[in-house]
């Protein structure tokens, strides 16, 4: 049946009901369907979810021209030609095209082509295995309901903030014009990526961080190198500051951000002082689960909470074990690729349970256990330079009781890196488990390192012994030769 035609009452019982058609929901429905189960997706906004329209895709479309220009500036023969301002209209138009002009026809066609039904509307649980859409249509699930409703930006409780109508990640990825002065609050991934993009597009950017550095979940050198480069690009970075109050006197007028800190070193909008005036204010301080109006109370759970799941992504404490929480909504790893991974795991687990096949929960790397969520999550921050990591940082490895050795390497010392860009700056680290002689984590910072990350992910998830990695020969002269340097340093 066509995706858009799922309206007949006779079809209201499905094997699997998926709430939310983001990357996670789409993949889960696909896996369930491929295993021979009937599946329907309920979506209240656009098929494709946050990632396609207000997150990964538009943000990377904004950032690619920034890093391409930056790299070209360091290549002899191109550097003069690349020493130009970005054509912001062209970049924004490129972004609009990648966000499919905020229309989901293409993704609806895909659902259609694979045979997954779509119901548009706001879904709510109404007791075990039942879902009500827009307060009317009732769907029932023979085997499972999978909540894949994702997350939304959080606005901290700062006086005047909500009334000032700040940007969230949605505005920062879809804005139609470049603000003259932009203040960004939050030094995590969204704050760093969006400060990078809007500064390169011509905005005067101040980045406010309450901790002492950027990208606090990565190895500290990642934040240091990215901060250094943002400062060179002209971003005013202020660490150790809290926003005390926000005022916007008139809609569309300037916004005043009042800080709880000593006067700053300077920046756009009238500093030094403890007030910054800007045209827009982006709040990038983390996410909350989209579970507040989902009927969780009808199945004994707390509305607005992250869903607590086991390693097959089944929600804990629900009688009958029919409810799954997959993707951002379970707070295991808020990344598209991890949501899709969990969807593959949960889809297989739902199909196995539907067929009465035993689930091997003790098999850490089996088909029904999302072990990579805790041991091997890869992430690329598409800043300039890129920061890429997988697995545990040294601090996290020590916290979890591993006996480790840390090996660092200057990426500039690798021939492939110096050929890649003049004056290449970057660093790599591997964290080795001394008891098992396998890699627990790796981090690379530098131009082009995002594409290096999967080699590390294979090593970490595969628990490849160091002595075998010695035989994985990196091609000369690529940046991957850093592996050789790291292993040489480890082996001595
Ligand atoms: C600015 C930004 C950039 C990012 N960049 C990257 C990146 O480069 N790489 C990466 O891996 N991750 C990135 N992320 C994270 C990534 O966007 C999320 O991890 C991913 O979107 C999660 O997918 P999901 O399917 O779980 O949820 P979502 O993509 O949020 O999809 C959930 C869907 O559920 C729907 N929904 C919600 N409630 C209901 C309801 N009651 N009824 C029906 N439908 C409902 C929503 O409308 C939405 O379509 C970024 C995030 C942000 C904010
Ligand atoms: N390239 C990518 O993979 C990518 C890009 C963007 C977002 N994402 C994902 O999206 C999620 C959300 O990103 P995010 O940057 O919003 O969240 P985050 O949790 O990564 O960072 C938020 C930062 O804001 C700080 N903060 C919290 N409250 C604050 C306050 N009141 N004042 C100042 N700072 C405050 C936190 O200490 C934290 O450092 C992340 O989990 C991230 O993995 C991924």
From TrEMBL:
Q: Which sites bind FAD?
A: 60, 149-151, 328
Give the source's domain of life in one word.
Bacteria
- Any GO BP annotation: 2-oxoglutarate metabolic process
Q: Which residues form the FAD/NAD(P)-binding domain?
A: 14-337
GO molecular-function terms, A-Z: dihydrolipoyl dehydrogenase (NADH) activity; flavin adenine dinucleotide binding
Q: Sorted alphabetically, which keywords does the UniProt record give? A: FAD, Flavoprotein, NAD, Nucleotide-binding
What Gene3D superfamilies has UniProt attached to this entry? 3.30.390.30, FAD/NAD(P)-binding domain
Alphabetical list of Pfam families matching this protein: Pyr_redox_2, Pyr_redox_dim
Tell me its family: Belongs to the class-I pyridine nucleotide-disulfide oxidoreductase family.
- The name this protein carries in UniProt is NAD(P)/FAD-dependent oxidoreductase
Organism lineage reads as: Bacteria, Bacillati, Actinomycetota, Actinomycetes, Kitasatosporales
């Amino acid at each position: 049946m066509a995706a858009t035609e799922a309206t007949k009452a006779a079809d209201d019982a499905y094997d699997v009901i998926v709430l939310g058609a983001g990357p996670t929901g789409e993949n889960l429905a696909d896996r369930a369907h491929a295993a021979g189960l009937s599946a329907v997706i309920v979506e209240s906004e656009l098929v494709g979810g946050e990632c396609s329209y207000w997150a990964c895709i538009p943000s990377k479309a904004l950032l690619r021209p920034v890093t391409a220009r930056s790299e070209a500036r360091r290549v002899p023969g191109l550097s003069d030609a690349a020493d130009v301002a970005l054509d912001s209209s062209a970049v924004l138009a490129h972004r609009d095209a990648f966000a499919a002009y905020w229309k989901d026809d293409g993704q609806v066609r895909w659902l259609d082509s694979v045979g997954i039904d779509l119901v548009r509307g706001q879904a709510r649980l109404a007791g075990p295995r039942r879902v009500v859409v827009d307060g009317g249509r009732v769907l029932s699930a023979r085997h499972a309901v999978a909540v894949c409703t994702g997350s939304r930006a959080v606005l901290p409780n700062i006086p005047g903030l909500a009334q000032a109508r700040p940007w969230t990640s949605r505005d920062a990825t879809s804005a139609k014009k470049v603000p003259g002065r932009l203040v960004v609050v939050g030094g995590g991934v969204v704050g760093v990526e969006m400060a990078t993009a809007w500064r390169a597009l011509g905005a005067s950017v101040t980045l406010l961080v309450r901790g002492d550095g950027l990208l606090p979940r990565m190895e500290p050198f990642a934040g240091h190198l990215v901060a250094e480069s943002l400062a060179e690009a002209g971003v005013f970075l202020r660490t150790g500051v809290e926003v005390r109050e926000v005022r916007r006197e008139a809609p569309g007028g300037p916004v005043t951000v009042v800080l709880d800190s000593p006067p700053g070193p300077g920046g756009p909008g009238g500093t030094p002082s403890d007030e910054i005036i800007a045209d827009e204010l982006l709040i990038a301080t983390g996410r909350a689960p989209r579970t507040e109006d989902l009927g969780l109370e009808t199945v004994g759970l707390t509305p607005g909470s992250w869903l607590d799941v086991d390693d097959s992504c089944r929600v804990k404490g629900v009688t009958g074990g029919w409810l799954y929480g997959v993707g951002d909504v379970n707070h295991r790893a808020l990344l598209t690729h991890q949501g899709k991974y969990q969807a593959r795991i949960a889809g297989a687990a739902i199909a196995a349970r539907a067929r009465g096949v035993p689930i091997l929960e003790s098999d850490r790397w089996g088909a029904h256990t999302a072990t990579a969520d805790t041991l091997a999550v890869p992430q690329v921050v598409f800043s300039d330079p890129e920061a890429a990591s997988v697995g545990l940082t040294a601090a996290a490895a020590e916290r979890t009781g591993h006996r480790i050795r840390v090996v660092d390497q200057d990426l500039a010392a690798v021939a492939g890196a110096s050929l890649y860009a003049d004056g290449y700056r970057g660093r790599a680290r591997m964290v080795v488990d001394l008891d098992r002689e396998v890699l627990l984590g790796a981090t690379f910072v530098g131009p082009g390192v995002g594409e290096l990350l999967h080699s590390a992910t294979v090593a970490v998830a595969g628990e490849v012994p160091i002595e075998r990695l010695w035989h994985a020969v990196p091609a000369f002269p690529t940046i991957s030769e850093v592996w050789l340097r790291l292993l040489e340093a480890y082996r001595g």
